[in-house]
Amino acid sequence: MTDRRDPPPGFRWGVSTAAYQIEGGMDEDSRGWSVWDTFCDRAGAVRGGDTGRVACDPYRRWPEDVGLMRGLGLDGYRFSIAWSRVQPAGRGEVNGAGLDFYERLVDGLLEAGIAPLHALYHWDLLQARPPVFAVVVHGFTRFPPPCSQPFNFGGGDPIRLGCHH
């Protein structure tokens, strides 16, 4: 492992996650289904029948996760925003409870001195959108604005850095 005294200027020690793989809270606050929910729900699709229904559960346990990150001395956390949580139908109304989860997470990270970095997509395409490239791209152009407003992406506090997949 690299000695923590040797990273180049501006280097961040951090971790990253993907919403479906860790969030849990699948049946809470009107979250919609992603293609991974559909896939994992098929008998025999995943060894042991594992799903993202509960997973690591930061949807309920994010304060503990932030505490663990702080205890490890991390100063960056890249997380993805689940389209299925923010806009369950893939269009139209935004799910306020879904946005509130990410807002609480971002606030907690900032209070802990951990820079939040976001990805608007990480392998959990919304099931409500047909998997046709043109339809997905058109829908995705409407997804980022509701996600960016409460977090002030692209301009200032609280999130100053971001990445997109």
Structure explained in plain terms:
The protein is mostly helical. The protein has one domain (about 15-150). It has seven helices and three strands, in the order E-H-H-H-E-H-H-E-H-H.
Features:
7 helices, mainly alpha, 37% helix
Brief sketch in words of this structure:
The chain is mainly alpha-helical. The protein has one domain (14-151). It has seven helices and three strands; from the N terminus they run E-H-H-H-E-H-H-E-H-H.
**Rg value:** 16 Å
Mean pLDDT across the residues is 81
Question: Total number of β-strand segments?
Answer: 3
For the report, how would you describe the main beta sheet? 3 strands, parallel
Kindly estimate the percentage of residues that lie in beta strands according to DSSP.
Answer: 5-15%
Write the element-wise H/E pattern from the N-terminal end onward.
EHHHEHHEHH
How far apart the termini lie comes to 27 Å
Low-pLDDT residue intervals, each spanning 5 or more residues: 160-165
Count of individual helical segments: 7
Shape: globular
The structural domain count equals: 1
- Helix content bin: 25-40%
Task: Record the strand order, biggest sheet.
Answer: 1-2-3
Give the structural class: mainly alpha
